[in-house]
């Protein structure tokens, strides 16, 4: 009996010393409820609750440090990304470069401007997808500016080339948009592009919702990368909340009543009345009744307190 009760309360997480002490005081035939009450009275807690009560020590990880766990993650993701409060960023390199080059030149500098903008905000997971054939020497019909930037971003494990090859003199290119949407969807990140990916929206209903909610459009103003402050519209989240895994909800703003003190709705009015900040909003009829009852009640109290009567 002693061993069965010991095993039972050990499974609940209590220490053996506390259990044995209680059984010695109450006896071996004590009921389980009585033993549990005595354990609680002694202040003994299960080990699971004690571990939750103790504050966990946060480990400081240097930004950009390599993972120490065995096995490499896909696309060389760092362990620091899992604890980062900012969403992963997946950039449509072709779209950004052509936008910066006014749709005439593939401007690699535009990609660098976008990457630097997210780096300054603290994003650690940034991936840029560009077709492999952009590594070829520039041609007259496909001009490329600042091509050396692609090599530098590739060395930093930021740039990823999508496959392409030549078959009988013709270039076979894989669809890089599918790479972009797929990686952003799996990483629960943000797509940076001015493309709406309508063909991929029709292809996968889950991608349709993701593209609608996680597409970050942008503009270049005098060589300055500028995404909108309201990516999902005027009534949507701010840019900071849009890029954060844990968005901070803004405090509700009460719209003042257009009628002001002349409002006759009382407590039924849905607007804010600054003249009544610390009192319950009463209707006009209730306010009049309260004003009438107040002097009547004072008069009755004076009559009761008057010793002459």
From TrEMBL:
Cellular component, GO, one term: nucleus
Cofactor names: Mg(2+)
Highest taxon, organism lineage: Eukaryota
Pfam families to which the protein is assigned, alphabetical: RNase_Zc3h12a, UBA_6
Residue ranges occupied by any C3H1-type domain in the UniProt entry: 251-276
Keyword terms of this UniProt record: Endonuclease, Hydrolase, Magnesium, Metal-binding, Nuclease, Zinc, Zinc-finger
GO molecular function: hydrolase activity; mRNA binding; RNA endonuclease activity; zinc ion binding
Zinc finger (C3H1-type): 251-276
Matching Gene3D superfamilies: 3.40.50.11980
InterPro entries: Rege-1_UBA-like, RNase_Zc3h12_NYN, ZC3H12/N4BP1_RNase_Reg, Znf_CCCH
Family, similarity comment: Belongs to the ZC3H12 family.
Protein name: ZC12D ribonuclease
Annotated organism of origin: Corythaeola cristata
